[in-house]
Amino acid sequence: MLANGQPIQYFNRYTEEVETEQIYCEKPLRWTYETGLGRSTLEAVVKRPFLSVFYGYLMSGKSTKQRVAPFIETYGLDPGEFADEPESYRSFNEFFYRKLKRSARPVCDGEGEIAFPADGRHLAVPNIGDEDRFFVKGQRFQLAALLGSGELADRYAGGTLVLSRLCPVDYHRYHFAIGGEASPVWLLNGPLYSVSPIALQRNLEYLWRNKRTLTEIDTAGAGKVLQLEIGATNVGSINATFQPGTVAKGDEKGYFAFGGSATITVFEREAVRLADDLRAQSAECRELYAHMGDVMATAR
Q: What is the pTM of this model?
């Protein structure tokens, strides 16, 4: 998908153009994953949870409040979407996991429509187990490792998977893609590698080695759906905010504290049809940018 030093590109659903990602802390990220010394440092220090926890602590300091305004300006964020005024955030971390106005992210309400669970860049595997092009050709998705269960993997073999990658510039609360009966959260602990394509194009295993959480939603129209949250470097904290039981599409599920991160939605075989643009861009190994609440798929 991309070689050393090449830009990360994605297709923007709203502009209908291929755009280049503005990568937060691009130079350190590329050094860590694209150089020999960097990869040695990654294994010795960067992947370890204590570093991400410490960095998150630093980003919660009162002095980091001064970073908010320059960040908004640099990355072109729209303060009109924020639930609170930019000046009200007491730290950069508090700004990072900010809430938005409900009107900023309307939730699709068409018959059978399933929503993206988060803002971000989305990539789909229409048939899990029959896909050898995920970020780069030849990397297969190891479902049993991701789910931490061979039994679950058997149930979802041949199903559909959508990876939603959140960059530091994105809205970092995640939501239920579909309504139903939600299980308690299941924690699968692990290290904290980056989930940027810079990292994943070298080793897709980071997705199922990283710390992650899993929830099963028993739905009326799409079978049993799994939603996972994937921690990443500088994201030592995955914070569930929902209560197990009945949930509605678009309800808040939780939030990530500082850093990039990802969610994964898994459907049973032939349970859904992916949105046309998501399917088309994924076939080209290109991510689709879309907002939380917009249409990801439709129940069959």
A: 0.88
